[in-house]
Amino acid sequence: MRRREGRLSVLWTMVLALLPVAAALAALGIGRIQIPPADVVKSLLAKLSGSPGLEELSEKTLWQLRMPRIILAALAGAGLSVAGCAFQSLFANPLATPDTLGVASGASFGAALGILLGFKMIGIQLTSLAMGASAVALTWLCVRGRGRGLSTVVLSGIMIGSLFSALVSLVKFAADAESQLPAITYWLMGGLDKANYKTLAYGAPPILLAIVVLWLMRWRMNLLPLSDDEARSSGVHIGALRTVTVICATVMTASVVSMCGQVGWVGLLIPHMCRMKFGSDHRALIPASVCLGAAFMICVDTCARSVSAAEIPVSILTAIIGAPFFIVLMRRSGGWRL
């Protein structure tokens, strides 16, 4: 299963493509209402053929409750993984995450503000997306001009992120302690329990479009860690490449936060795992991050809704799983290199 010229082998391509599919099929049957694998397959075949499926309760559980969550988990995992991968390459920084430019903090403020103002789910999504984009725009305005390197962009992102984190605290202070404050707090901890097809109809297209754009220019992304002069010698407009990369990563992160709140560690852990296994060539790195990130989030969300009577916020589980695993990876690899 070795790579050839930076590309995934056929075997690895098949394995990675099957991982999220297998995780999704397993997740459909796992939950407080256990559905045997045979019944899951039977219901799936019935959907495809139009024939009668299972009893009403099982059908509703599979296709109205669990399937939207699984789709959202796959989209969130894939989007955050690719966004983290893009930012790590763009800033040549192993600690870069999808929130490097403050987009997650901005989107979180938008969601908290939407809840405070009593918006419906769609309104919360749109407000979250708008504030996430605003955070990145402010970061970019802070570094506008010549002679400002990528390190200045990172510092500006940290400052803007802190600003929006303070605004989130202000919204929580102003929120009603009995109704709005618990909703905001639970949202910020991350959860996929609000998933439905209507929510996905608004949030999924931006994530999918951004992933497709980065996948199409994946070979050019190998130039991101290079200096301006080195990148120009290859004939690629490095400024345009960086701008498109930032826009796509921002759109993915803001869309994920708008649908399921802040989910940490995915955008840091999964790209590291993929780099250690498949190297730094984005022709292999982007598809690997998509598949592994999707499978990881499906598994984490399945655990979040199944291990206890009360659903565990997803961000808690990603931190509990991600932090020790990340430490083990670092000790075994001896570090991280672009």
Low-confidence stretches: none
Put simply, the count of helices is 13
Order of helices and strands: HHHHHHHHHHHHH
Largest sheet properties: none
Q: Give the CA-CA distance, first to last residue.
A: 22 Å
Principal-axis shape equals: globular
Mean pLDDT: 86
Our Rg estimate from Cα atoms comes to 20 Å
Tally the beta strands. 0
- Strand fraction band? under 5%
Question: Can you give a write-up of this model?
Answer:
- The chain is 72% helix and 0% strand.
- Helix 1 crosses helix 2.
- It is globular and about 65 Å long.
List the helices and strands and how they pair.
Blueprint lengths: L9 H20 L7 H13 L6 H35 L12 H14 L4 H22 L7 H25 L5 H9 L8 H20 L11 H5 L5 H23 L5 H13 L3 H25 L7 H20 L5
Which short descriptors sum up this protein?
single chain; 338 residues; mainly alpha; 0% strand; globular
Summarize the structure.
By secondary structure, the chain is an all-alpha fold. It is built from 13 helices and no strands.
